[in-house]
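Methods, example record. To illustrate the input and output format used throughout this study, we show the complete record for Odorant receptor. The sequence lines were provided to the predictor; the line carrying structure tokens was produced by it.
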Amino acid sequence: MIYQERLQKSDLFYGLNIAHLKFYGLWDGINDYRSTRKTSRMFKLNMTLSTLYVFPYVDQCDLVDLLRVDFLSSIPDSKRHHVNSIYQQNAFRCNIFTVLAFTGNVLTIITWTILPGFDTEKTGTGRKKILSGWYPVPYSESPWYEIVFGYEVILICWHGSLVSLYESFLLILLVALYSHFIVLGYHTSTLNKNYKGLIKTKDDATNNIAFNMELRKILLDYNKLLRYSHLLQTTYNTITTITLGLDILVLILTILFLMFVSSDALSTFKLMMYFSFALIEITLLCVSSSFVESASMAIQDSVYSSDWYSADKAFATTAQMIMIRAKRPVTLTALKMYPVNMETMIAIFRFIYSAVAVLSKMKE
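The corresponding predicted structure is encoded as:
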């Protein structure tokens, strides 16, 4: 059994904010499993209470390596300063995506709490519940009403924020993967025979061997990125499919409700909160996955920009191998076959428009 070291703050992208992962215990749970290959009781309890124990947390413990600043082993010290600046820029992007992932959900939770929409057992009392359902207590009367209301507030705050937690974790992994493709592309495009890391001799054959070894290190890192990309796809395929499917359903139902059901300003505001939350989720997933797609395909241009024309045939063969493999883009997938990218986002919006148009015609 392979044990991994615990990740420290210094191992991660500089400026990456993981406070939300630590707050919910996800970070400590991942580190405990990485170092011991055992799941702590507290982590199991946390996942069970969160109804998220079925999520692939084991694979997530391996995927968290993408957050390491030394993930790529082919990067020389002479390029480390520029590489760290790339990681720092994308750490800021991760933080922005995390804020956006939580913002829509927090606004929705606040709306649910301030504007509850379900009557209690006794209508006309003005007392409303946040969630539908029955309780084995007279929850229309004090103090049971206050107890039930407080319980529902805690429930939606906990579970609602966990949705954003896992979404933000996925977005962080996607941006980290994008960062590594960008860094590897930068290193490849600047690879030439005047590269400082090469040990130069008067023998051209020896110089070519050293030059080829640098490209093979890049090839090993590229294969490593493809392995982690495949693991990310398989791990989050089901979650991505469910998330996009539910968001599409929410958007369609919200639009139909606004079109055909007369409602007051408060109800309309609540519906717009649901609409914005689903819209933010779809946009963030498709945009971040599209980043990875473009960066993975840009490896072809990076290889072509290297000093391949002055190298020997072995170098050209390895470079050609990388370029051929880079023709297949890396993205998230839904239903194990459909890529999640900007084109997918446009297709989703077109489908929503078509579905609303058809259903509205049927209503008429």
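Annotations derived from this record:
Strands lie at 118-119, 128-129, 332-334, 338-340.
The first strand starts at residue 118 and ends at 119.
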